[in-house]
Amino acid sequence: MDKRIPVLRVEDLDVEFRTRSGIVRALQNVSFEVHRGEMVGIVGESGSGKSVSAMTAMGILDPAGQVTKGAITLGGLDVLNASESTLQEMRGREVSMIFQSPRTALNPIRTVGKQIADVLRRHGSATRQTAREMAIKALMSVRIPDPERRHDAYPFELSGGMCQRIMIAMALSCRPELLIADEPTTGLDVTTQAAIMDLIKELAVERNMATVLITHDLAMAADYCDRIVVMHAGHVIESAPTAELFAAPKHPYTAKLMKATPRGEGSLDDIDSIAGSLPDLRTELPPCRFSARCERHEDICDTPPLAAQELSPGHFVTCRRPL
Amino acid sequence: MNEFFKHLKYVLTENPVTLIAGGLFMTLVVIAVFGPVLVPYDPLASNAALTLKPPSWEHWFGTDQLGRDVFSRVLIATRLDLAIAVSAVAISFIVGSVLGSLAGFFGGWTDRIVGRLTDTIMAFPLFVLAMGIVAAMGNTVENIVYATAIINLPFYARVARTEVNVRRNADFVLAARLAGNSSLRLLATQIYPNMLPPMMVQISLNMGWAILNAAGLSFIGLGVRPPTAEWGIMVAEGAGYIVSGEWWLALFPGAALMLAVFCFNLLGDGLRDLIDPRRRT
Amino acid sequence: MNGNGKLRMIIGRLGQSIPSVIGIIIVTFVLTRALPGDPAVYFAGPAATPESIQQIRESLGLDKSWPEQFLLYVRDLATGDLGVSISTGFPVAEELLRRLPASLELTLLALIFSISVALPLGIAAATRPNSWVDQLCRLIVTAGVSLPVFFTGLFMVYIFYYLLGFAPSPLGRLDIIYLSPPQVTGFYTIDALIDGDLEVFGAALAQLIMPAVTLGTFTLAPLARMTRGAMLQVLSSDFIRTARASGLRRSTVLYTYAFRNALLPILTTLGMVFSFMLGSNVLVEKVFAWPGIGSFAIEALIVSDYVAVQGFVLAMALLYVALNLTIDILYTLVDPRVGLDD
Lengths: 323, 281, 342
Hints:
The complex is a heterotrimer of chains A (about 325), B (about 280) and C (about 350).
Chain A lengths: L7 E12 L2 E13 L4 E5 L6 H9 L6 E10 L2 E2 L5 H7 L4 E4 L13 H11 L8 H11 L5 H5 L8 H13 L5 E5 L7 H18 L2 E6 L2 H7 L2 E6 L2 E7 H6 L4 H9 L48 E4 L2 E3 L6
Parallel strand pairs in A: 3-8, 3-9, 6-7, 7-8
Antiparallel strand pairs in A: 1-2, 1-4, 4-5, 9-10, 10-12, 11-12
Helix pairs in contact in A: 3-4, 3-6, 4-6, 6-7
Chain B lengths: L1 H13 L1 H23 L31 H37 L1 H15 L3 H12 L3 H28 L2 H8 L4 H12 L1 H24 L11 H12 L5 H28 L6
Chain C lengths: L2 H14 L1 H16 L5 H6 L5 H10 L6 H13 L13 H36 L4 H15 L2 H15 L24 H8 L2 H38 L2 H8 L4 H38 L5 H10 L3 H29 L8
């Protein structure tokens, strides 16, 4: 199989939200690719559009949101033009997603085993008779001790880390080609965070699965991801292989992020050394949404169009005056 | 104050229904107060020649089995029905909110006793309890008021208790306490006035329910006696004539009831929008 | 939580209702005995002579001290003695029991009607916000809360019986040309079916429809409102997002995941709905001349038969406690988290 055909490709995606206070241009010209076997990290501050991109790719965007431009291809399927039933077949089987706050992301009045079984049975990976057995197998694959007993437990009886393993088990039960992990370790303690990330990485390698890791923890992205996509205010401003990004960031914003969170320290939500705040996405904005906070800003930055350039193989930057 | 009126204007214009409810409310009050002056006919005057006439230009709502003008009776009944509801709610509110405030403020045994009291009342289906109270105390209009007041008490007690509990440890209370105010004084002057706005919402919503209750009690023959004009008893008297097709005896008092209850419910919803801080922009 | 834990919780709930029962007994005692004036006069009735009043006073123990009276009262209750009705001459307990099936049949049918309309309506309104279904739901909720139940009943009679002629005459459980079926449960519909008499079954059902719909319409409003509200809230929660992201079918997400969770606040509302229902039962029975315990109470009120009225109040209150207990237990069974803070 040609390794170069991406499992997920997002091309020039524009997403708008209709709200009471106006139209929010949440995403603009967002493009990125994920290949089989690689883990791509999408990093950015809160509100940069990371989750919206993922939800759009899955086809579970909030009804107030609308795709106004672009294309998303998932394993050959044109997501934006597919029917809801096709998408439903795809979700949980070809692509799965796990979320933060695993305790609230699970049905509180249904045993975890039954929840995994629901997914298995939905996609034909199990029948009513084999469901329990397959669910227990899924629990074992995520290294949950005493899986027979845990199968009949309720989420409130389990720890946060355990619940996240359950979610992973559910997500991977039908062997998807792509796993999207949206802040999977937020809210967990540091040791559990590492354990969960190790588990995800291990399973991804084992199954040659493509993974998207959405996080505001730059250090975590550095530790686990092969490529990193940096987002700011609904734009993809830089994307590169991890090592290269950290060695030589080309976008002023990326450079600031690196400085603000040196390896192993802090998350992007703690930074205050980047002056100013995210622009108001309801207003008319310049082509580069970082201009207001950028020290390198000059008039040329305000002339549209602003497209991504490939400065070196695999290293893309969206900036008029890259470093 | 200016803030309040700005917000009032916003709520009223945002939701025209509240405006309509407000207008309806004023109309009801006017009718209640000026009833005797407004009626075209004497509500108690019977006329053997004009019995059971359908609605016409002379008699907008028709005449009843004794030849009395239904329109006049419906108008006059407004005063009695509103009076019953207002008195019941007033008693309910005063007693209930005081008990609830004491319970919420002092906690401990006070809370337990008040809690037991409200729980016991709520252990009964409320209308049935009202029936029992009127039966025990005597079949008069006053007792209808007291019975309705008693069964509505728990609502006010509970809301008051919660509101006081929430405010008990607020900064302004602590400041007043430091200034040397005694507990009761604190409760009366600082906390109680502050929780009146949410209570107003309860009162408005409760009025509708109180009216329905009182009408229900008079429908089954309690409290009001003929020939008094009251919506509930008028519907009861008109009920017998429905099967022979004389619908106007029961429809108009019933519709009046519905309008009054509807008005108070809408008003309560509107007040809630006005007062609930979460809705403030 | 295992079966043993659930059982213990159910027993705990049973225990929790004991204070309510005690409160009810005390209140009814106060209402019957601690009246202003001479209770004996009340009990003797309006046609009493001084001799009969004295007789009543002695037989009911009204000349004894209050604690003694209370004990006597409780003893009587324990043996099922609710006194003797002045108007009929029969023991109150017997009268109530005889008329109970009529009320139960009516209330049960009303409840079934109410639930089968309110729940789907609420769910549909929640899944199609701002559609015509949603507006209809909101209209029904607002109107339903404002309409007096006796008014709805009367107008149903007017439209369906007088104007359209669909419905049978609103004069009780069965048209006089029919004989009531042999008594098994007391429910005419079920008894007719057991007897194999389809004609009587149809006639009984026809008489039931209008009063049941009237009673049910009144309770429809709070139920539909709560269903819509609860569904809206649940549908926006995290675990529904996970369910959708896992590709679960719409029906699975809606019913197995969303609705079951929404059921919890709906069950709680049901408790409040029962309070309205038991009260409105009385009014509906009057409008439709339904020979249940409600009309028994109304007749008793008119002839000042206070013993009967108080027996009625006590019976209804105990029924209400039992209903609430059932809901509590149902809640416990649905929600595995209950009992964590006991």
